[in-house]
Every structure is written in structure tokens, then in C-alpha cells.
Amino acid sequence: CRMYDFDRNGTMSFQEFLALNKFLQKVQGVFSTLERGVVDFSALRMCMRR
Ligand SMILES: [Ca+2]
């Protein structure tokens, strides 16, 4: 799940998760009128499981 790994160290820290959350909220705000489900939260959950 490198696409969520902002500093590209191979793992997703809690700090990165928070940053990602902020980012996703922004993205969702932009795209929510265009299409719901642009951000796949189930994929993110799989990412966190590792
Ligand atoms: Ca990282």
C-alpha cells in the first residue's frame, strides 16, 4: 500500500494515517459532488492491517 505511505518508508505510521485522513477529507470534499466512493476506505483498512 505504498500509495498511502507519504514518506515512502514502507510502513504507515499513525502520524501518516492522520495526515492521510485530513487529505482524504479534502479530496472527498472536492469529489463528493462528482462521485461518491472515490476514496476506497476498505482498501485503506486492508492497508492498516499489515
Ligand atoms: Ca511512512
Automatic annotation (TrEMBL):
Keywords: Calcium. The keyword Zinc-finger does not apply. The keyword Calcium applies. InterPro entries: EF-hand-dom_pair, EF_Hand_1_Ca_BS, EF_hand_dom. GO terms for molecular function: calcium ion binding. Residues 1-27 form the EF-hand domain. This is EF-hand domain-containing protein. It comes from Aegilops tauschii subsp. strangulata (Goatgrass). The lineage of its organism: Eukaryota, Viridiplantae, Streptophyta, Embryophyta, Tracheophyta.
